[in-house]
Structure formats: C-alpha cells, structure tokens
Amino acid sequence: TASPHRLILMLYDGALANLQHAANALESGNQAAARTHILKAQDILSELLACLNVEQGGEIAQNLKQLYLYAINRLVQANLRKDRALLDEVAGYVRQLRSAWAEIGKEVGLGTRQGVD
Q1: Which one, 16, 25, 38, 63, has least CB within 10 Å?
Q2: What would the pLDDT profile of 22-34 be if each residue is shown by its tens digit?
Q3: Long-range contacts of 87-93 (CB under 8 A, 24+ apart)
Q4: Which long-range contacts (CB under 8 A, 24 or more apart) does 94-102 make?
Q5: Distance between CA 113 and CA 79 in Å, rounded?
Q6: How far apart (Å, rounded) are the C-alpha atoms in residues 105 and 71?
Q7: pLDDT band at 114 (very low <50, low <70, confident <90, very high)
C-alpha cells in the first residue's frame, strides 16, 4: 500500500539499518553476521540501481547509477577487508540520498500513500 516514493525511502532505511548492523557485528568480532548484513545492503543498493530509468532520468539518473555502483564496490571492499570505515563511507552517501529523497517527497506531496510517483 506504500507509494513508489515511500518504497524508495524504505529501501534507503533498510540499507542504513543493514550497514549499522554490519558495523556493530564488525565491532563485536562477528564476521559472519557482518558479511550477511553487508550483502543485504549490497542487494538493496542493487535494487535501487535496477529501479533507475537512465533514459527518462537523464543526468540525475546517470549520476545516481554511478554512485550506486561505487557504493556497491565499496561494500565489496568492506566485506573483503572487514573495514568499518568503508561501511561508514557508504552509510554517509545513503543518508544524504535518503534525506534528499525525503525532501522531494515533502515538496511534491508523495510521502504518503497517494499512489503517485
């Protein structure tokens, strides 16, 4: 029942939650849990990437595509190195994107279940 706009917010929230869980798992030495949560965050970013329409979205969609690909690559590196700093870097990008997306929703009234995107 969520609007397409709200679904994107939920994906950002899910990515952020998994990045935090992965960071916590690394801090506690649980590499298996860290790996699981990093992979979930990668899957979410891959889904966001798949949702992009580069033809209609033009330069903005192309820039988002590059950012998502970069973030996914950084998560692969974070998983291999078990590097908390890389997780924090990606979380920073995702927080900024989520914030911008939430603001767009406020400006155009898409943050509710209106079914319009």
Answers
A1: 63
A2: 999 999 999 999 9
A3: 87/19, 87/22, 87/23, 87/26, 87/38, 88/23, 90/19, 90/41, 91/16, 91/19, 91/20, 91/23, 93/67
A4: 94/12, 94/15, 94/16, 94/19, 94/45, 95/16, 97/12, 97/64, 97/67, 98/9, 98/12, 98/13, 98/16, 101/5, 101/8, 101/9, 101/12, 102/9
A5: 36
A6: 23
A7: very low
Share of the chain above pLDDT 70, in %: 91
Q: How many helices (H) and strands (E) does the chain have?
A: 4, 0
Contact 80, 19 (CB under 8 A): no
Token pair, residue 104, equals 């767009």
The span from the CA of 96 to the CA of 64, in Å, is: 12
Whole-angstrom distance, CA of residue 42 vs CA of residue 46: 6
- For the cut 90, the answer to whether the pLDDT of residue 101 exceeds it is yes
**Predicted pLDDT of residue 108:** 66
Q: Report the alpha-carbon distance of residue 91 to residue 108 in Å, rounded.
A: 26
By three-state DSSP, how is residue 82 classified? coil
